[in-house]
Predict the 3D structure of the following.
Amino acid sequence: MRKKSLCILELVCLLLLAGCSGKPLPEGMEEDTLLEKGREIVQQLNESQWQDVYDAMRADGQETTSPADIQSYMEALLAEAGAYQKETDQMTTGQKLKDSGEEYATAVFYVKHEKDDMLYRIAFSTELELIGFQVSVR
């Protein structure tokens, strides 16, 4: 019964997220362009192109990670979720860094994998530089 309740709660959250785009994107950013750039990063992550993801990162992001860090992070997640199958939904949202006040945008992708679904959050500066990403098994 508890598992059924959790599944219903997840479904409600998914529907709420899918039905809105969150906060508006920073001025000058376009949703289609943001989603296109985000999909490129998702593809690179699923094709083991760790160096390409690292190279796309803004300098401050490169200071806190490495291609090897990206590889170990993704390999652990992909071992659990299996191979990429298809994107099932997406959304975008604008956000602001608390410490600096810098505005940025996040492209969010819901992706079906062989064994499990995954959620990809790909964050970009207003200049469309990759500033970070988070991937989780759902």
Q: What stands out?
A: The chain has five helices and four strands.
